[in-house]
Amino acid sequence: MGFLTGQEEPIPNYTCRHGSPQAALVGDTRSSLSVSMARLLGLYKFSQISYSSSLPSLSDKIQFPSFLRTLPSDLTSCHALTQLIIHFQWSWVIILAQDDDFGQQASSLATQQLSAASVCTEFHLHVPSQQSLGKIEETVQKMQKCTARVVLVFLSNSDFQLILSGLLAASVSGQVWVSSDPLHMTLSLSIPGVSQVLQGTFGLLYHSSRAIGFPEFFAHLHPNQTPEDIFIKKFWEYTFDCTWPYQNSTVTEGVQVCSGNESLKNKPHPFPEVSKIDAAYTAVYSIAHALHQDGKGTNPQDFHHWQMNPVPMGLPLYNLKLPSTFNFHTKRCLLCPKEQYSSHTRDHCLPRTEIFLAFEEPLGFILALMAILLAGLALLVLGMFLKHRDTPVVRANNRTLSYFLLISLSLCSLCSLLFLGRPTVTTCLLCQTTFAVVFTVAVSSVLAKTLTVVLAFRVTKPGSRIQVCLSPGASTSVVLIASLIQAVLCGVWLATSPPFPDRDMISEPWHIVIQEGSGATFFCVLGFLGFLAGGTFSVAFLARDLPDVFNETKFLTFSMLLFCSVWTAFLPLYHSAQGKSTVAVEIFSILASTAGLLGGIFIPKCYIIC
Description:
Blueprint lengths: L1 H4 L19 E3 L4 H12 L4 E3 L16 E3 L4 H14 L4 E8 L1 H16 L3 E9 L4 H13 L4 E5 L2 H13 L6 E4 L2 H7 L11 E4 L1 E2 L7 H6 L12 H9 L38 H16 L25 E2 L18 E3 L6 E3 L1 E3 L6 H26 L4 H4 L3 H17 L9 H32 L8 H4 L3 H25 L4 E4 L6 E6 L4 H22 L9 H25 L3 H30 L1
Parallel strand pairs: 1-2, 2-3, 4-5, 4-6, 6-7, 7-8, 13-15
Antiparallel strand pairs: 9-10, 11-12, 14-15
Helix pairs in contact: 3-4, 5-6, 6-7, 11-13, 11-19, 13-14, 13-19, 14-16, 14-17, 14-18, 16-17, 17-18, 18-19
């Protein structure tokens, strides 16, 4: 605000400036405070030209309408680097990125563009902004195991030098280093022996040209001309290899003393790159050319800073210079087909084997054995009920429903065998629909048994309408109606999106998992079964306080609690499991819920009968 108003204590929206107005602000704009100032100056359309800021956010012309810069943004440099890699057809790279906004944005953009060009990334390593030696060592160890020879760098200078030192100590070499910052390589070469690591390097060079008048200016420099310059004496000592005599100090014998008569004319100075136009030089001269082009240089009193914005915005403030040829070639990689995977040495592709939950493997054999034993147990209980069908225990609980339930539980166990082995079109069509229908019969039978018990305790008068609902035909109709609805849903499912064998190439990198593919309609089938189970459990739970001498409702409540618990746990496990584990989770849930119904309802009765 002081810069805008010309006062140490500024008054917003007022200017009390005397003399010519400032045309623009030239600076680096790297800190968050500078970014805030850029946003504020943008409100006044005050031109700001940065010679060192590459923050991508400053390219937003809505937030920073009058911000210009003589360097490309980080994302622009990132795009140039990815195009460089694509140009040389390097298809196997490593990305080293700083764990901050710049590193994450730049590496994410690079990954997207490289993936679209079929360039593979072996490792994407993030280095924390706080210099953690442990993380640096971990990064070096990972790079020792890498087979890619092209390294794309989005790091700070300090972390880059630490990683290079670690690689030098580990005798790692042979990579091509690609960086947007030429200063990376310049500073890193100061490390003794680092040239062994940096055998092949790449960077972006900015267009530059000779600064007019700089050699003449340099030749006439002298400490006496600018005594207020605190750097010129140090520069003089460095250039002429001499030492200035200081007060109250003794000059060491053999040391050359600076006299001040030394001349810089025809002296090759140690900073030849300073004679080129750099970003700051370009920033200042872009303002001068803009003022001259707009005719404001003749009378600065008539100049308003907002008038200069349209002029510099059209100037080519920066330019990227890329080499047209490069004779370093890389150990060229090709992306393996989907049905193959890369060998450990990354030199050829191997076929991926098809896997599925087979009967022969230990897990499949154990699950199949459990299914057969459980089905046999259900048939054994059915035989016991048929043998003792005239006992009070069997007769008191609707023998027909008990027979329905035991047969359906036996089929529930056996239907899990359809999930084992290599999935075919036939097994895919049968396993899910069979599972849905037989479980619907089982759960609806439990619902009918629960309603029978509840209604039996509500009959107080002979000939009541409720007594009609206690007939065997009424309870059987509950099972038939529920099963018919589920059969219709399964028919719609098979007609619209039937399940077929699916080849999963994502879960396991070295295998192709063969499994059943289920459409969206399958979840409607499961939803109806879940609705039926929830209703049965609710009815049984509400009727759990019937007289203790008749414990049937407690057994029904406990068995449905086990059933609902198993299938509630099934959903997250099913979605988080991968490969063959998905099929194993489904079979285990079928067997566990079947065992819960069989044990909770019939084992106590078998104990009484025996």
